[in-house]
Structure formats: C-alpha cells, structure tokens
Amino acid sequence: MKVFVTRIIPQVGIDKMREAGITITQWPEKRDLTQEELIFHCQQHDALLSVGPNKLDATFLQQVQHLKVIALLSVGYDIIDIEAATKYRIPVGNTPGVLSAATADIAFLLMLATARKAFYQHKKIGTGNWGFYEPTANLGIELYGHTLGIFGLGKIGFELAKRCMGAYNMKIIYCNRTNNTEAETAFNAVKVSLDELLQQSDVLSVHSALTPQTRGLFNKTAFSKMKPTSIFINTARGAIHNEEDLIEALQTGTIWGTGLDVTNPEPMHPDNILLTMPNVSVLPHIGSATVETRNAMAELAAANIIAGLDNKPLPYPINLLD
Fold this sequence. Notes:
35% of the residues lie in helices and 14% in strands. The protein contains twelve helices and twelve strands. Strand 1 (2-5), helix 1 and strand 2 form a beta-alpha-beta unit. It starts with a strand and ends in a 13-residue tail after the last helix.
C-alpha cells in the first residue's frame, strides 16, 4: 500500500506508517501542488495525507475515487467536500485534541501582545524610533478582571479560558449551539447569545469551525455591536471575519485592537495596512507550531492512514461510512 503526503511531515508519523509496511511518497518542493499534480500523484497511490491549502473538492474526489483513506494534518476540514467524500466511500480523518493547548497559547499571546501594542513597539526599536520618552504615547490597556467572550467554546476555547481566568481573573462568557457544562462548572462560564457576546466582551476570541453559517460572520454589523475598547482575536479560520470590515472598524475606533493568527485572504499580502497599525498583532498561522504538537498531529494522521488502508474504522474520523 502506498500513501502520498503533500508536505514533509514530522518523522514520527513517517516511521509509524513505515512500521505498518506502507510505502511513502512525500512532496519535497516548497510550493503548493496544482490540482492536476495532486490528482496525478493520488492516482498512483492508495491513500492521501493532505497538508496545506489544497482544495479537495467534488471535482478532485471524483477523479480519485479509488483512495482508501484521506487523512488531514489539521483539525479543521473546510478544505474538503465531506459530502462528496462520503458519496465516493472515502473515509476522511483529522487530528483533534492534540493542538488545543498550543493554539490557546497563541490566542493568549495575541491577546496580551495586542493589549500592550507589543508588535508595534518592537518595530520601533529596529527603525531607530526608540527615543524620547512620552508618558502618554502608545499606551496599552490592562486585562485584569475584564470579560473574555469565546465564540465556539470547545477544547481550544476551554484552554484559553483556563489561561485567562488563572492569569487575569477574567469573567468568561461564550456563544455555542449547545451548553459547555464543563466550562460552566470550571469557570462559571455563562452562555449568551451572539449579540450579547459582541456587546459584553472586552476580548472576543473566535474558536469555531469555518462553516457556511460562520463564513464572514464577523463583519461590519458585528463589529459595530462591540465595545470601542474591545479586542478581536481570531485563531480559527480567516474567512470567519471580513478583513475589509475589520480594518474599517479599527480605523474608525469601532473596536480597539485585533490579534490574528489567521487572515482573509491567507497568506496576507506584505503591504496590508493591518501590519502597520499600533493596536494589531498578526502571526502567520502558527497555532499548532510546536515540536510536541506537530509530532502528535503526525501520529494521529498516520493512525488514520494505517486504519484506512487496513479497511478498519478510522480512529479520528470526520465522516462515518456505513
């Protein structure tokens, strides 16, 4: 059995698949495959371990119906047409759980960096503008006792709530389709409507999946309901916020600041005005970028590949086949 891997992944995942007798081909070039290239390589293999932005849409899946399994090196699965994969009887798996702490750390980092204008202040050193002391210039804001609002309180949001409550005694509110009783017990978290989340949050952090319902949800209308002293954090998917509306909200003082690990579009163009704003912190989608987390993700993806090639249920499935 042969698997095609669209990036160089941690060796622990490669070793696990090789121990199972699987032949591995990794795409070595530092560029995304075209869809035609990806189809060609998949047609020579029995399984696909997909890393990165390649769209695995219905057109793609129709041409690789023979695949026994597709494993994603991610929690999110908006790149793949799950309905089409299910139609063609291709099991699809992801890597849930293992990146929750690392991604929550990035959300916490962005929150604190934005509140203290840290990225902007750091740039002043390199440009030679660290000079005359002005007691009232470029001041940040403090977070202690403020309200953290979480949109999509799952495992990542839970880890962020733990950090914010422990470090800053923040009040936790959240907007979910269902109640998170664990968070309500641990943090006295309160479930609120979306409008209440927007109106009450001092920091609003997004941790939901990208779906038709959440795509572009944080737009001009949403930002207009937030506090002028509030910070918007997104470490989920860039398409959940409208970037033009976000820029306008910052420029007009509708909200105070933003911290982004994901952008819309992604990657962000280097001349994007967000990169020049004092109250903005942007990172290049590094939520899971630790040795420990990427190793764990590679192991979970390998486990999905091994199970799929052995015609067994995936340990971490997205779609369930009869």
